[in-house]
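chain and backbone:
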Amino acid sequence: MQLVHDLNEAYARGHEIGTHYNGHFCSDNPPGGNQWTAAGWDAELDQFFTFLAEWDAINRIEDAPELVVQREDVQGGRTPCLEGVWPEIAQAWATHGLTYDSSKVAAGMAWPRVEDGVWQFPVPTVQSPAFGTVLAMDYNFWVKANGGTDDPGAADALRAGTLDTYRHMYAVARDGNRAPVVVANHFNRWSGNAFNPAARDFMLEVCDDEGTVCATYSDVVAWLERQDPAVLAELQGRAPVS
């Protein structure tokens, strides 16, 4: 029930709810996402949307609260372990009407493009002042710092390094190509909850800066699709920054 309450509250506050599919089925324990065919991804999304619509009946909960997030609210997501053979999963995206994805990895931050039928918001590799060359995701910061060892005593240092990384990403994008900054945070309380406060503090710092908009993926997609094609081409032609 708490999860339903949290989802409803997040949605009411304007946060977008996407899919992370149904579990971390990854290639280190095959068959993972890199081995799935279009049929497998179709089945995965079918199950996800069934869970979304019928969660109360599946769990046999009477007088359950309403989950306000509806099928049409879910427009994209991120695959488990950033895996997938894109021509295969693209068929499932099209079948289920998804409009964006944030599963690919890119060298630096650049403007989104339509790839495999959806707007792609890659997770970038950046030059972190704290972690060096690293994929810009909290789990990867953790692994780069200490191999992913649970060390609550290091929480303050990890938090500071993560915040410095987000600040760096924001600065190079703001002063460079102005590309959207993807904050890839899991919301797990890893290593003494080192990472969630950093994501929160970063957003509190920058979301009201002049010329900065903290937006959902669907908001950005809507903005991109309203641009003059020449303007969009110029933005997409700007070199990545890291």
User: Anything to note?
Assistant: The first helix runs from residue 2 to 12. The chain has nine helices and seven strands. Residues 105-115+123-242 form one domain. The two ends are 41 Å apart (CA to CA).
